[in-house]
UniProtKB/TrEMBL annotation:
PANTHER family: ALPHA-AMYLASE FAMILY MEMBER, NEUTRAL AND BASIC AMINO ACID TRANSPORT PROTEIN RBAT. This is Alpha-glucosidase. It comes from Streptomyces vinaceus. Belongs to the glycosyl hydrolase 13 family. InterPro entries: GH (IPR017853), GH13_cat_dom (IPR006047), O16G_dom_2 (IPR045857).
């Protein structure tokens, strides 16, 4: 698409950069902005339209940077604000836009606002920016409420020395903000302007459905902590409240004034309520978690695709497609297991994995997602076919692991530093497994059969050939276990998830195949092709 297209986001290929693990520019074992800048030619050659950066702000890193201490300062471990501005400009010169992460539900306990609230004491204006409450019980020794944490249902209230408690839906180091307070709203609007003025093209909104809370903070009292469907007639006390939409309408006006876009992290099972966030005056796009968590099953995938397109159609928003991110078990590993879905509750140590099978399926899944209408997100390392790493117990840093009592392996396995060469990083913040060099980018670059070559070829075709991006999708007749659909300009995608080779529909050319056809010209199991008819 043209680099200056106003609707670039409707069909963009967006690459997620987890800075801490992407590339180390100064050799201290931690990824940084210098490392990203040095790899910008690689990203441009890969063929992506934008980079989404997970938080690069000043942070104590209690939760991988999602505990922000200052939105206007780059964490010194990553670089400086001036370097971030150079990165944004240099990427744009290569035709690659920048999307930054905003975490509006909470801040770090080291944020100036929270430190002032602790110092000011009960009843102070400073505490009104958060959710401080007296405890229950004779001496206030019991938490004020029963809401479970987003991390394995752990406690969401922490008591401070003066006896009050504060709310945190995540870790105790991430106090929730009070979005009924006008200062909280003004501050975030100013932060948006701050980054839009520095040239960012968009903002990804973390935990976008959690900001607004019922002011009474009522107990769940046995009701489910998950989002409630529309038919209940009740508003959930802290998920998907109607108050949110006024917030996002005010944000949209700011984004429109800069020509910028939003993508929301919205986990909601109710398609009608999900679509409300994508109305023309609110968010431009939202992540599609139904597809991400779907197992490698033809029927389930088709249902997810159909439901996704149907829920986006009434509001005219493009769908988004993603296989993996910084919170999710890597695709190669997940697809090599007996249970190929993703579920936080199902994560466990020692799950058997067939990496050869997972790699074959991940290659086919890449062509499937890149052929669907809308935009697509690629998490760093997916283009290298990286599996989930087994991080030694004594090196795990993810709070999800510790707050589960050690039963959840956490998310560090998908956050291990990328292998650029066979030589490992010097003293990386998370250890690279033995054999990681076999996935190195420099080795894959010259291999016509590598995962990197597949992604480069697919992204180049997606950008240059007709039929990709926006537009229609029509299902074609296919045997059980085979997905086949037509896109505009004669483009056809076929994915064989059945147990036997499948015939291809009539076509004039084969554009790309995730694996070779068999000797009879049939499509093998766990293989995808792009055809021109």
């Amino acid at each position: 698409m043209p680099a200056d297209a106003a609707d670039w986001w409707r069909s963009a290929a967006i690459y997620q950069v987890y800075v801490r693990s992407f590339a180390d520019g100064d050799g201290d074992g931690t990824g940084d902005l210098a490392g990203v800048r040095a790899r910008l030619p690689y990203l441009a050659e890969l063929g992506v339209d934008a980079l989404w950066f997970t938080p690069w702000y000043l942070s104590p890193l209690a939760d991988g940077g999602y505990d922000v201490a200052d939105y206007r300062t780059i964490d010194p471990a990553f670089g400086t604000l001036a370097e971030a501005e150079r990165l944004i400009a240099e990427a744009r010169a290569l035709g690659v836009r920048t999307i930054v992460d905003i975490v509006p539900n909470h801040v770090s306990d080291q944020h100036a606002w929270f430190r002032a609230a602790l110092a000011a004491g009960p009843g102070s204006p400073e505490r009104e920016l958060f959710h401080f409450r007296p405890g229950r019980g004779e001496r206030g020794e019991l938490p004020p409420g029963d809401w479970p944490s987003q991390f394995n249902g752990a406690a969401t209230w922490t008591r401070v020395p003066d006896g009050e408690w504060y709310l945190h839906l995540f870790t105790p180091q991430q106090p929730d903000l009070n979005w009924d307070h006008p200062a909280v709203r003004r501050e975030h609007e100013d932060v948006l302007r701050f980054w839009f003025e520095r040239g960012v093209a968009g903002v990804r909104i973390d935990s976008a459905a959690l900001l607004a809370k019922d002011p009474a903070l009522p107990d769940l009292a046995g009701r489910p902590p998950e989002p409630w469907p529309s038919g209940t007639g009740e508003a959930h006390p802290y998920i998907d409240r109607d108050d949110l939409h006024a917030i996002y309408r005010s944000w949209r006006a700011i984004a429109d004034s800069y020509g910028a876009v939003f993508v929301g992290e919205v986990w909601l099972p109710d398609s009608e309520r999900f679509a409300r966030y994508l109305r023309p005056e609110e968010l431009h796009t939202a992540f599609n978690f139904s597809f991400l968590s779907c197992p490698w099953d033809a029927g389930r995938l088709r249902t997810s695709i159909e439901e996704t397109l149907a829920e986006h159609a009434p509001v005219g928003a493009p769908a988004t497609w993603v296989l993996c991110n910084h919170d999710v078990t890597r695709t190669v590993t997940r697809y090599g297991r007996a249970d190929t879905r993703f579920d936080f509750a199902a994560k466990a140590f020692g799950t058997p994995t067939d990496l050869a099978l997972g790699t074959r399926r991940a290659r086919a899944a890449a062509l499937l997602t890149l052929a669907l209408p809308g935009s697509v997100y690629v998490y760093q390392g997916e283009e290298l076919g990286l599996p989930e790493a087994d991080v030694p117990i004594d090196r795990i840093q993810d709070p999800m692991h510790f707050r589960s009592g050690g039963t959840d392996p956490g998310r560090d396995g998908c956050r291990v530093p990328l292998p650029w060469t066979a030589e490992p990083w010097h003293d990386p913040w998370l250890p690279q497994p033995e054999g990681w060099g076999g996935y190195a980018a420099d080795r894959q670059a010259g291999d016509p059969d590598s995962m990197l070559t597949l992604y480069r070829t697919a992204l180049a075709l997606r950008r240059a050939a007709g039929g990709f991006g926006g537009g229609s999708l029509a299902w074609l007749p296919a045997p059980p276990g085979v997905l086949a659909f037509a896109r505009p300009d004669g483009l056809v995608c076929v994915v064989n998830l059945s147990g036997a080779p499948a015939s291809l529909p009539a076509h004039t050319s084969l554009l790309l195949s995730s694996s070779a056809l068999d000797a009879a010209g049939l499509l093998p199991q766990d293989t995808a092709v792009w055809l021109r008819t």
